[in-house]
Amino acid sequence: MKKKHWKSQFTSSLFVLPYLFLFVVFLLVPILYGIWISFHNWDLLAANHKFVGLQNYVDIFTSSTNIHKKFFQGMWSTIQFVIYSVPLLVILGLLFALLVNALPKRIQGLFRTIYFLPYAISVSVVAVIWLWILDTNSGLLNLLLHKPIPWLTELPYAWVALVLATIWWTIGFNMIIFINALNDVPEDMYEAASLDGANSWQKLIHITLPAIKPILIFVVITSTIASFNVYGQPFLMTRGGPGVATKVLLMNIVDTAFQDRQLGSASAMAILMSLIMIIISIIQFKATNLKKE
Amino acid sequence: MNNTKKGLLIVIAIAIAVLFLLPLLWMLSTSFKNDFEAISANIHWIPQQFTFKNYTYSLSGDNSDVPVLRWIFNSVFVGVAGTILVVAVDAMAAYGLARLDVPFKKFLFPIFISTLMIPWVVTFLPMYMEFSDFNLLNSYAALILPYTGNAFGVFLMYQFFRSFPNELEEAGHLDGANKWQIFLKIALPSAKPMLWTLAIFTFMSIYNDFLWPLVATSSPDMRTISTGIAIMQQGTFVSSFGKLMALTSIATVPIMIVFLIGQKYFIKGVTQSGIK
């Protein structure tokens, strides 16, 4: 019996071993390796990497250093992008979902597909299409407006351009999640409200929003995380400009790693960036749990 | 709801749909224009001098600066290989964790799942160093393997196998089938919709990924189409929007086919990823 049990466990573990191997090599080791690198003065070209402890982290918080400038300038640009994009991504996502759900059943699928379509495209295609539409001299939008607005090279237009492209690209994702949440709201709640004489607006405020609150919070957080990770749009559309106004943190991390070749500093920046993102996730989980209690 | 209101909603929905499709149509339209007409101040949705030149230029095999066919091949190959690997390995692991007596599974599963919270930015630089240490940058391995550690698929399939009815497995046991046979002949076939969900989700994220293939490859031959576009946009094609739009149109075709075929599974995948 004992031997058979051992054999059975061995066969079973063969199911998990391939993933476990990939998990360790391509997730666990990189995480630990990244922390290790962040404790070193790790020049990409130098043969020896000196252990410096927490110095890279201290540097980020020391206002005279180059790395401090890069981290906080990038963080500020990233936070601006989050502030501009997330409310629109959430509110428009919900409005699109409400709109699609209010359409006749037969055509819901068609519109859902059209609004979701751009999500299937890669960020480089999205950026190049919008770069073309927003081009100052020959872009479609300025031709329609008959005005040479510098969408990509001046503030505040550069932010408008980045947010516009991002909404077009990703709003469908939020919409789908909202559509599913809306469909899970029990129909009899609306019927009861109708009997009480509630109008559509009152139903939205008093029934729909409270019922989908956990999903609403979830969408806020996933949108925030996604916006924190923004890279392709500013990299390709504004190249971080004008000046460094739209140079987001991820661009500065990549630059620090591959232009300045300072892997240690770049890793420390990446770890700090993800700590901030993890804290946001934790707040989300807490907020959703509170709702359930 | 009364008819006027319904009609108004349909009009709004159509207006938004048109706005959503216009960028793609403008891309297609420009891709058939010559460079001169592309930057013309008059808006022509239908090219006045219709030309295939932008496509033939990009697609001609002897154009070593712009090996578009190779880039498409790389993206599709890497997407398909990565997807097969991820789906196979994740389904096995999820089945093992959900249904079999895997040692330490009470300990392993939470560890796998907790990594879903860790942003990929943490792994991105060390992953680069790992592949650099093993001299594997600029290879298919570098373009495929980094996607395989992700626990999303394990999580998704685990949920499914957990709710999988016992009776089917027991019938298999009575017939004398071993674990592998039960997995392959009973569990997997019934998980088909879920496997497609994961497959399409995985394919799209690998095919569309940008930053990782951008840093992990450096030779023109090893670029994927999404990074190839970025290189061309900042280089040779910087002011040739006709060629650039032909390139983006070509890049969009494979992913649109996958999206439109797998749409219903993909939407399901989005939902599942949404409800944690």
From TrEMBL, chain A:
Pfam families cross-referenced by the UniProt entry: BPD_transp_1 (PF00528)
Organism listed in the record: Fodinisporobacter ferrooxydans
Main location group: membrane
Protein location: Cell membrane
InterPro entries: ABC_transporter_permease, MetI-like, MetI-like_sf
Family: Belongs to the binding-protein-dependent transport system permease family.
ABC transmembrane type-1 domain span: 75-284
Keywords: Cell membrane, Membrane, Transmembrane, Transmembrane helix, Transport
Keyword Transmembrane helix: yes
Membrane topology summary: Multi-pass membrane protein
Transmembrane helix as UniProt keyword: yes
Segments passing through the bilayer: 12-36, 81-102, 114-133, 157-183, 204-228, 266-285
Protein name as catalogued: Sugar ABC transporter permease
Automatic annotation (TrEMBL), chain B:
Membrane topology, record value: Multi-pass membrane protein
Residue intervals of the ABC transmembrane type-1 domain: 72-262
Record's signal peptide: none
Keywords carried by this UniProt record: Cell membrane, Membrane, Transmembrane, Transmembrane helix, Transport
Compartments, as annotated in UniProt: Cell membrane
PROSITE patterns referenced in this protein's UniProt entry, alphabetically: ABC_TM1
InterPro entries assigned: MetI-like, MetI-like_sf
SUPFAM superfamilies (UniProt xref): MetI-like (SSF161098)
Record's keyword annotation contains Membrane: yes
TM helices/strands, residue ranges: 7-28, 71-95, 107-128, 140-161, 182-207, 244-267
Family stated for the protein in its record: Belongs to the binding-protein-dependent transport system permease family.
Protein's UniProt name: Carbohydrate ABC transporter permease
